[in-house]
Design brief:
Elements: E1 3-4, H1 16-37, H2 46-59, E2 65-68, E3 74-79, E4 105-106, E5 120-122, E6 130-132, E7 152-156, H3 160-165, E8 196-202, E9 211-217, E10 230-238, E11 247-255, H4 257-260, E12 266-272, E13 290-291, E14 312-321, E15 328-332, E16 336-341, E17 355-363, E18 390-398, E19 403-406, E20 411-414, E21 421-427, E22 431-437
Parallel strand pairs: 4-19
Antiparallel strand pairs: 1-2, 2-3, 3-7, 5-6, 5-14, 8-17, 8-20, 9-14, 9-18, 10-11, 10-17, 11-12, 13-16, 14-15, 15-16, 18-19, 18-22, 21-22
Amino acid sequence: MGGLLKRKTTSSSSPPFLAFFFLIFLERSVSVALELDHSKYSQVSSLRLERIQRHLDKINKPAVMTIQSPDGDIIDCIHKRKQPALDHPLLKSHKIQKVPPEMPKVKTVKAEEVKRDYYNATSSNNEERAVIGSRSAWQIWHQNKTRCPMGTVPIRRSTVHDVLRAKSLYHFGKKQSRTGLARQTDAPDVVSGNGHEHAIAYTGTSQEVYGARATINVWDPSIQVANEFSLSQVWILSGSFDGSDLNSIEAGWQVSPELYGDSRPRLFTYWTSDSYQATGCYNLLCSGFVQTNSKIAIGAAISPVSLVSGNQFDITILIWKDPKLGNWWMGFGDNTLVGYWPSELFTHLAGHATMVEWGGEVVNSRTNGAHTSTQMGSGHFAEDGFGKASYFRNLELVDSDNSLTTVQDISTLAENTNCYNIKSSYNNEWGTHFYFGGPGNNPRCP
């Protein structure tokens, strides 16, 4: 059962020998459990386990309180000043921003028309009209009604098994480096050469961008093999797509059995300042992102999810540069502040972004020589439309005046439209939006 984990103390009246045998039993039980859990891995040396544990000791900070989530996650409530972010060499003297950032102003629509709840239940009709509905269980760990105390931030605890699922300790929590792809000069940073495939919309590179917002419906796509993933996200980009200095800030939802050990969609973030080489990571698996919210756990599972021909559940992601202090903030849902990426982490993004991407990404490892059957979005192609296909709606950009404006012109790209595709459109309810996704392997995508 989910709930607050309480540390039990041994009664002083217990005979010493019983306590001794209990400790022996506990030690053997843990050893057996580790052996069972490790059975699918090659033999793990004690030296490697020591290295992994030292790394985990760095990122799993001492908890003020610990919460057991119904889905098996352990959420540690960490004091704000003890969180992993502040271990970063560039943030040693960083003071957590206490002054609320200046929220972007809305230019093109009335403020009340863009207010979102954490979840928006969308009904199926011809106008694609969003019906706003309050959903209290927007992260699974909230279902037991336990919350982290004020002054702390919830952080999903990482385990030895999380690290062992990665290629190596170095690769734990990191995306693969992106490589070049023949494309027009203003096309986005996408790549199929290393097995990543996309269906995305993107802006041109001739403008200064200070943020973006979009609403994304959440699905639980099937993943063929454990080292593949499927995600839907926003990218904030600046720097050279062909060099080693690309800066990227990312957020959305993701299904990644390798990273999380299950197939649930999870809220995630990512950042890099050197084209995914040495800097940055997912979520809070390295130092960098400063969390300020005590109710949202990055990396925690999202619930409920959309159903084909049923209710559609979506999340709103906002990323923008605070004009006062220059940090890149993340908002979730109805202007709920999650935290920020300090400007010190970046080179190009220390100023502004030059491109925004919205859309889906999967890993195609071509197991047995065939294209993966890992689904993007809902697993349906874009032309299947509302209630079946995955969508991004109400695409907006933040300009130099810190104002949100509806995206007017977007380009779209998908490397292999027989596997995954994308179709954009515009209407009054959803503004600029698009459907995207696909099943992967099929007769036209062998």
